Amino acid sequence: MARFEAAKARALARLQRRGADEEIAGILQKINARADYYTTSSCSGRIVLILLPEIGAKREAVFLGNWHRAVVRVEVLAAMVDAPFAEGELWLLAQSPIIHVACRAVEKAGVLLRLALDAGFKYSGMKGIARDTGIVVEEMLSTARMDVLVGGFAR
Predict the structure, then answer these.
(1) Residue 72 has pLDDT above 90, yes or no
(2) What is the C-alpha to C-alpha distance for residues 35 and 12, in angstroms, rounded to an integer?
(3) Whole-number pLDDT of residue 88
(4) Nearest to residue 88, comparing CAs of 40, 14, 150, 4?
(5) In 3D, which of 95, 102, 134, 140 has the Cα closest to residue 121?
(6) Rounded to whole angstroms, how far apart are CA atoms 33 and 104?
(7) pTM exceeds 0.85 for this model
(8) Residue 153: pLDDT band with limits 50, 70, 90
(9) What domains sit in the chain, N to C, each tagged with a CATH number?
(10) Are 63 and 50 within 8 A, CB to CB?
(11) How much is the pLDDT for 97?
């Protein structure tokens, strides 16, 4: 399947140029070292402070802080100082790691899915199968998440 190898080469070149979050670089290397898999995108997890004008209005949201590491209270408070307090809600989100993996075939995706589930990535699943190549994209995602309403504001 020359198309799989070509796509993998492009993805690995992109990863080399852009890099990855240090905390998950090791697991990405292990996945990418396997002949039947390559990572397409990833995030080691993040903490976000976000001002939403209303629930579900992510496009209109104002991101006040976005950290890919543990933060301390003073950092979150400092980010709040610059908040354009308008009508809406202020949320603090803690989001778990996420890894997208291209798999050579459904059978290979099944093997990886079982490993992800057994490792605690309980929200993992196959996201799509390319009609022309049979490449399966799998998302590995854990259940660790926290969405905390910090406050609501009205004009």
Answers:
(1) yes
(2) 12
(3) 82
(4) 150
(5) 140
(6) 13
(7) no
(8) low
(9) 2-153 (3.30.1960.10)
(10) yes
(11) 93
